[in-house]
Amino acid sequence: xxxxxxxxxxxxxxxxxxxxxxxxxxxxxxxxxxxxxxxxxxxxxxxxxxxxxxxxxxxxxxxxxxxxxxxxxxxxxxxxxxxxxxxxxxxxxxxxxxxxxxxxxxxxxxxxxxxxxxxxxxxxxxxxxxxxxxxxxxxxxxxxxxxxxxxxxxxxxxxxxxxxxxxxxxxxxxxxxxxxxxxxxxxxxxxxxxxxxxxxxxxxxxxxxxxxxxxxxxxxxxxxxxxxxxxxxxxxxxxxxxxxxxxxxxxxxxxxxxxxxxxxxxxxxxxxxxxxxxxxxxxxxxxxxxxxxxxxxxxxxxxxxxxxxxxxxxxxxxxxxxxxxxxxxxxxxxxxxxxxxxxxxxx
Length: 347
Description:
This protein is an alpha/beta fold. The protein has ten helices and ten strands. It has two domains: 2-135 and 314-330, Nucleotidyltransferase, domain 5 (2-Layer Sandwich), CATH 3.30.420; 143-309, Nucleotidyltransferase, domain 5, CATH 3.30.420. It has helices spanning 2-8, 52-74, 93-110, 119-124, 175-185, 192-200, 223-239, 243-274, 289-302, 318-330, and strands spanning 12-17, 23-29, 32-39, 83-89, 114-118, 143-148, 153-160, 163-169, 278-282, 305-307. A five-stranded mixed sheet has the order 3-2-1-4-5, with helices on both faces. The longest helix has 32 residues, at 243-274.
């Protein structure tokens, strides 16, 4: 009878994400999302990129009210929590230290375990977040995941929640970084991805051709693409000082089309070589409308079973940390109070 009662006790996981410039907290009940709160930092837009010192200071200000709000929205007390999952890395070390320190303090105060989560693993597992009263399909292992963001462009072979292998990755710049840098050249805001996507809606994707890298295997390279874009702008501005203003939408549409083609060609090669036709996309760039459409087109043409995350689960969020923590909790994979964050790591 005692064992039966224990099975009925719900598992509440608090997730905390602080790897970059968003402070986020989420609560899951038995793998079902109860709340997901994100406090963004607008201060960085003035600098054209994230300033680490400003980010860590903002996390210190935001983390207590963000966690409190996530618990309140979940309709529980902090004493109901079963464990706390937090992002240990990779990311900005100052930002990670805020989440790590807060988790240690709350874990000791409540007498519950803390669970360390790899930020990249969280993105890959975001597809397993369940929501109340929603029937949601989840990928079946093994599956391939295209993980694309401002800092990462990888093809991941996912054999289990705790068994992932990077089979392809960028050898220089990430796809999201390419969007950011090109947007900056055009005088756009930071981050540049949403800006490029918005401008591309009214442009001709075949107006301009840019250099595509020829890299062996499933690896990516975007540095040459950025250089090609920059040289085109430079040469055309010599002929017409108003070139950017006149062709802004065409430029965005063309660079977006090129990046997506590079991403999808390598992904298709991985699908063909492995025979795995269950394919997911994750990370901040997975919010790009062109990439989402490309996934739909490839699924229809090649018979892929695809998984595209909700927009709210594409960017950094604590729900993906909490679901990873939930899987680890069920397996008893707990963190040590002496653990420290790391700024760089692979899956």
